[in-house]
Give the backbone structure.
Amino acid sequence: MNLDVEHLETLLAVVDAGSFDDASIDLGVTASAVSQRIKALENRLGAILLVRSRPVVPTDQGTRVLRYARQMSLLSAEFSAEVASEQPIAVAVGVNADSLSTWFAPVFAELAKYEDLSCEFVRTDENRGLELLRTGRVSAVVTNAVDTIQGCTSHKLGTMRYRAAAKSAFAQRYVPTGNAAELVHAPMVVYDREDPLQYDMLKQVAGAEARPAAQVHHVPDSMQFVAAIEAGMGWGMVPEPQLLKASDLRVLDEQWFIDVPLYFQRWSVDSKILGRIGDILVTAARDHGLHLLA
């Protein structure tokens, strides 16, 4: 089935902008023209592609078409760059906050060498990044998912080791002898309500029925999460690279750690740009902060 490229680009614009009106501004056409293009694409496919809410949300069928549209847009941009001087190729990559805050600086240094590339890094949890890949929001993602989703390839990056840590004064007050019962009853800092690491640590050291203290703080920023622990608000699972830079954090027990595997998943399209980004990430992960996967 042949699909109109202009219609696919319009679909991308509407989803990215969040509305028909905003997409019309980005595309430089009227809102009516945007609506007609989307309608024509839906008629061609025989399915509704967008829920007309605000922001606009793709339907299940729309998600599949959206992913195809992004792939076509990427390959088209790469081809145009090969045959003529064009604008930089735009690529979106999903990355978890801890990676951005620890081992990603060398990635930025390498990408800065390429004038033909415009990157959008979408911050996401390593547990939820695959959804961005499935929906076509990003072309690649750093994820802890071992299984490769259909239509993608996966490359091992390494493991991010997290250790139970706290401010020295906090540790002396709440976990003076370093036993599991003390850890269970100590105040705790958690990244957000989707973050399982602290709860997994409690189960690991105190059993599946372990429940944390009533005082739990949620700090949804990688750098400020560590800052909250350094301030003495509670204990938390801190990435090793951040531990090395912290001024007053103490590892509560050398055996209290969790290894989170990280993989680079990307669309399995013949894209030099995605291949280049993958190579840069694999090298940076190997050389800066991640343990090698077995």
In short: The CA atoms of residues 87 and 173 lie 58 Å apart. The mean pLDDT is 88.
